[in-house]
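Hello Y.,

Per our agreement to keep a running log of every chain we model this quarter, I'm adding this entry. I've kept the format consistent with earlier entries: sequence first, then predicted structure.
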Amino acid sequence: MPNISLEYAVNPAGWESATLTITRPEQLNALNLATIDELDKALDELGAKKNLRALIVTGSGTKAFVAGADVKELETLDREGAYKLSLNGNRVFSKLSALPFPVIAAVNGFALGGGLELALACDIRLAAENASFALPEVTLGICPGWGGTQRLVRLIGQGYASELMFSAKRIDAAKALEIGLVNALHPGENLMEAAMDLMSKIGRNAPIAVRAAKKAMNDGMDISLDEGLEKEAQEFSALFDTNDAKMGLNAFTNQKKYEYTGE
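Predicted structure for the entry above:
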């Protein structure tokens, strides 16, 4: 039985969105090696889509988004195997982060260890009110290995990131919202509706412009402000060669509506 479900939807205007679901509910959607491999292949498929404007990532059921890595598999590893596992997981999660369109994590329960790291690789995180978050690796004698030590500090700052990683404390959704780990909270039964509503809002905008904004932001994360501003200027100016920019600006000036085509 597949560990990943990938579903596509076509908006009446003709553009596509997608939902990727981790489907191991009996294991609380824990990420074993097979699931990482399936995720890798699914991301290749998604990355090849030309008309896709946004993606939702979630877990099956109501208990867990992803409850971490499969500890039984971790138990079998030596140093070399652990190194390869970390590199491979980071490669796959970085592939998710590098998708050219926005990715929304719909965190519908536990997001622990590798589950939190998966959510961190997304652009936006929405959470159910019963969701909880932790990086519990140090309680097992290991540390985060799929981006937790790098992405969390960039998102919420060193103080909160250090506290979560070093203490392994679990925080609830309200605290996650307070520290900026998630963007918004919703009742569990309304979470996917809220994620789809946000995805629809994103999809109605010019897809080339959204992709340019994401690229400029991601490219600018690890360079100086001046270099980042140069990246922004490049992305901004390149859009003026597109039909969407010409028609979008003209539609605003003339108080008309324009359906963006991605050209």
